[in-house]
Amino acid sequence: MDGYRGARTALIVGAGVAGLTAATALARDGWQVEIAEAGPPEAPAGWGLCLTGPSLRALDELGLADSCLVAGYGMTTITQVDAGGKPADEVRLPRLIGARRPAMAGIARPVLHRVLYAEAERCGVVVRHGMTAAAVDQEGEQVRVRLSDRTARTVALLVGADGIRSTTRGLLGFEATPDYHGQMVWRALVPRPAWATGIHHFAGKAGTAGLVPLSDGQAYVFLTENGVERSALPDAALAPRLRQLLEAFPGRVEEIRSLVSESESVVRRPVLTMLLEGAWNRGNGVVLGDAAHGPAPQTASGAALAVEDGLVLAEEIGRHGSVGAGLKAFVRRRAQRCRTLVRTSVAIVGLEQARRHQEAYSLVDSCHRLLAEPA
User: Fold this and answer.
1) Please, which residues have CB within 8 angstroms of residue 259's CB and are 6 or more apart in sequence?
2) 202 forms bridges with which residues in the sheet?
3) How far apart are CA 330 and CA 290, in angstroms?
4) Would you give the DSSP letter of residue 325?
């Protein structure tokens, strides 16, 4: 098909992974793109994430995989350790971007944000901070958006990429509420131990823990706390409580425990999932990334799905004669893949809570295999 040839103006709400990659992909296809971001210009605070093979493959299509590998820590293996502290299995993941490059990479969230932000700006994307969408009206094949600073935009495409608690989702008329699954996940930045050259997962009697390298000198430790109500703790209580929870794990976790400092490098967040059933688009507006499908963190799939969404969105709109047709094709192409990942992540949470760790590991492996298939 000839593809969409109308006025190529897009407003994206949210400058996270999904919003920035969608903005870059659209801008490279000739779109005039503006992002409304509620947060400040500074890179957001954060700990780390794992760019799995599918994440790197999608970033490679944008020419950004090598920048992420240089800024992060390349890896190929996941070591699974049983509740007795003994290695139970070592999984070697496929190298989806070539035999000479790693299968995955750990990277600090602020570092990834700077890489994506810089590329979006290089492609001509304008990012405006301190604002978000306040109202949306469909006007034929245009979308009129009133922003929180009381200005308005009329665009051919509105993209809601404002996360699992998306307000744009509601403005487009979709109803969805994130689900809490009785788990709180802890993360803390620590110095990288010399032995940590890949991801380590540690099974425990009451929860699970792990370590992900982020650079030559830094890693982050994570821990899932099962069977707890959603709650908040004072900042001063976080590091002592995390060290206490890590006491239940034998072996190398004792070394990790000693690295958890009293600094502000510890966070505790609820494990939430969200799945928007049915269409994600209405008129010329669409939601993507966590605003449409937020998996639990155990699958390490959120970043991959977000980057893939941005690429596929631009590709499908470019293939169709109208934005509406492109959005419908985008949802058809993405829905089953994302639905399976979210539902599988919920099943993994249940298995962890039942202490059926080997079955949980098998499901995580199935997620990696599914995402290794083309998007």
Assistant:
1) 190, 191, 193, 221
2) 81, 209
3) 15
4) H
Question: Within 62-198, where are the H helices?
Answer: 65-71, 109-122, 168-171
pLDDT at 358: 86
Please give the Cα distance from 51 to 69 (Å, whole number): 9
- In the numeric block, which tokens belong to residue 171? 């403005």
Question: For the segment 261-295, what is each residue's pLDDT rounded down to a tens digit?
Answer: 866 789 999 999 999 999 999 999 999 999 999 99
> Is the confidence at residue 1, as pLDDT, over 60?
no
The Cβ-side half-sphere exposure at 273, using a 13 Å CA radius, reads 25
> Start-end ranges of CATH 3.30.9.30 in the chain?
183-271
Residue range 183-271, CATH number: 3.30.9.30
Q: Record the tokens describing residue 95, joined without a space.
A: 């190298």
Q: Give pTM, 2 decimals.
A: 0.95
Within the chain, which residue ranges are assigned CATH 3.50.50.60? 9-73+106-178+272-372
CATH code of the domain made up of 9-73+106-178+272-372: 3.50.50.60
Residues 93 and 368: beta-carbon distance below 8 Å: yes
Distance, CA of 40 to CA of 85 (rounded, Å) = 43
